Amino acid sequence: MMKSHPNGHLSHLNRTDGSATLSNEGYQVVASVNGPMEAQRREENPFEAIIDVVLRPLAGIGGTRERQLESIIERALRQLILVKRYPRCVFQVTLQVTQTHRGDLINDKAVQAHKKLAWVASLLHAAILALLAAAVPLKEIATCVVIATPREAMGREPIRNPSAEIMSKAKSLHLLCFTTSGALLLAESEGECTLEEWDAAMCAGRATCCRQLPIGEIGPNVGLTGV
Amino acid sequence: MASSTTATFVMPGDEIDPSLIPSHKKLPLRLGPGLRHVPPNKIVPVIAGQIITDPKKNTIWVENAGGRYVPSPGDLVIGTVHRSTMDAFQVHLADYSAPTLLPHMAFELASKKNRPQLPPGSLVYARVVSARKHMDAELECVNPTTGKADGLGPLVNGMLFHISLGMSRRLLMARPASDGGVVVLDELGALGAAFETAVGRNGRIWVNSESVKTVIAVGRAIQAADKEQLSVEQQKKLVRKLMKDLS
Fold it and tell me: Start and end of every Exosome complex exonuclease Rrp40 N-terminal domain (chain B) (predicted)?
C-alpha cells in the first residue's frame, strides 16, 4: 500500500473562529473551534474554561464510543489550552469525520468508531490545527504517532504510523502524544505487549514526535500513570 | 507597521531567539498579545503567527489575523444591544460571547431624567473601559474627562459587515493605506462614492450612505479584500470594477 503524506487546510470555514481539515491515509477530519464563548450557567466553571469536544462519525450521530474518544481528546486539549485565562468560558471543538478507510466500512456501510487508536491521532492533529487557526492561547502544541508492535514473524522493530493492514495484524498498538517540550501528553494502548516492547514503542514514539529536541532535553515522563 | 526586516513565525511553546527581543535604555519591555511571561525570565508565544517588534516603544507581540474578539481596555468596538437592565445595556461584541455592560450614564448628556433609549438589536460604537477575566467587560460611549461623545454613540441606519480581526486592526491604524495596505476605502472615496464608516476592533465595520447600493458595494469590497487577502493593486482593480457597476 502506498503511503500518502498528510494534507491539511486551514481556516476554510467562514462561520467558525478557526477551522482545519486534515486528510491522512484515506482518513479525513474537518475540525472547527469556537471560543472563548459564554458557557451555559449549569456547566460553567468559575475558575477556568471548559472544553467541549464534539465528535461526529461519518454516518449517524455519535454513540458511547464517540463519547469515550471525546473524553480522551478533551483531557489532552485541556493540558494545552490556557484554560485559567478564560473563566466561565467554553471552547467548542467539533470534529466531523468526512472520509474513512476502506477497511472501516462493513458491507460498504460506515460503522461507528471501533478501531479507535488510529483515529485519535488524526482527530487530535486536526483539533490542534483548528485551535492554532482560531488563535486560542496554547501553552504548547502536541504531535502524536501510532506505533505498532509487530508479531514475531514480521520482525521486532516497532512500526511508526502503520497502515491499516499492519494494524490489523499487529500484536499491540500504542498511541503516543508528546508536547513541544517533549513531555508525554497521551498514551493509549491496545493489545498486549511486554515491558521491553513498551519501552521500544516509547523510544520510537519519542524519536518521531520530539525530533527537534536533543536527547538530553527530553522532558520527564509526566502523565505516565494510567497506561 | 513597525516590523523587523525578516519575518519570523512562531508556534505556541517555541523558544524565541533572544536577538529578536528588543532592548531599550529606559523603557521597560512590553509584551503584546500572543506572548506570555513564564517567571523568572522566559517569554513564550501562545499563538501561532509572525513576531513583530517595535524597538522605539520597546514592544514585542505576535500577529495573527484570526480568532474571536476578546475585550481589552481602550479598544473601539461596535456592539449589538441585547437588552436593557436597570442601569445598563447588555451589549454583545461577538456572537455567543459573554455580554458586556454599557451603563445608561455612559452617554453624552445622559442624566437620570434623560437616559438613552436603545431597543434590542441597535448598534453602538463604544470604547472598552475595563476588561478583567473574572468580571463582565464594561463599555462607554463618552469621554469621561471632557464629557463629549468624540464620535462614539448609537449607530443609526447603515449596515454592519463582519471582517476578520486582522482586517479591523489594519483599518484602525493611523494610516491604513501606507501601514496596513488597505486602500479600498480611500479608493472608493476618490472615485466619488459618498459614505461613512465606523470600524470596530471586534471585527465589525458599519457602513452608511445615502444610497443602499453604495453601502453594499463598500461592505462587499472590504470583505473581499479581507477574505482574498488582496494586494494594493488588486484592491484598486476591485474598486474600479465596483464603481463601474454602481454608475
Answer: 29-68
User: Is the bond into B116 cis (omega within 30 degrees of 0)?
Assistant: no
Residues A105 and A176 grouped into a single domain: no
ipTM: 0.91
Stretch 54-93 of chain B: residues touching chain A, C-beta under 8 Å: 64, 66-68, 70
How far apart (Å, rounded) are the C-alpha atoms in residues A46 and A30? 31
Residue A8 belongs to domain with CATH number = 3.30.230.70
Tens-level pLDDT at each residue, chain B (247 residues): 444 456 889 999 998 988 889 888 889 999 999 999 998 889 999 999 999 999 899 999 999 988 999 999 999 999 999 999 999 999 999 999 999 999 999 999 888 888 899 999 999 999 999 999 999 999 999 998 998 998 999 999 999 999 999 999 999 998 888 888 899 999 999 998 899 999 999 999 999 999 999 999 999 999 999 999 999 999 999 999 999 988 7
A52 and A127 both lie in a single domain: yes
**Domains along chain B?**
9-63 (2.40.50.100), 75-156 (2.40.50.140), 161-246 (3.30.1370.10)
Asked if A133's CB is within 8 angstroms of B47's CB, the reply is no
Name the residue type at position A183.
A
Domain end, chosen from A138, A172, A206, is at A138
**What does the alpha-carbon distance between residue A193 and residue B184 come to, in Å, rounded to a whole number?**
63
Is residue A117 located within the same domain as residue A154?
no
Contact between residue B89 and residue B83 where contact means Cβ atoms under 8 Å apart: yes
- Tell me if B11 and A132 make a contact (CB, 8 A cut-off): yes
Give A80's contacts in chain B (Cβ within 8 Å): 12
What pTM did the predictor assign? 0.90
How far apart CA B146 and CA B106 sit, in angstroms, is 12
**Secondary structure class of A155 (helix, strand, coil):** coil
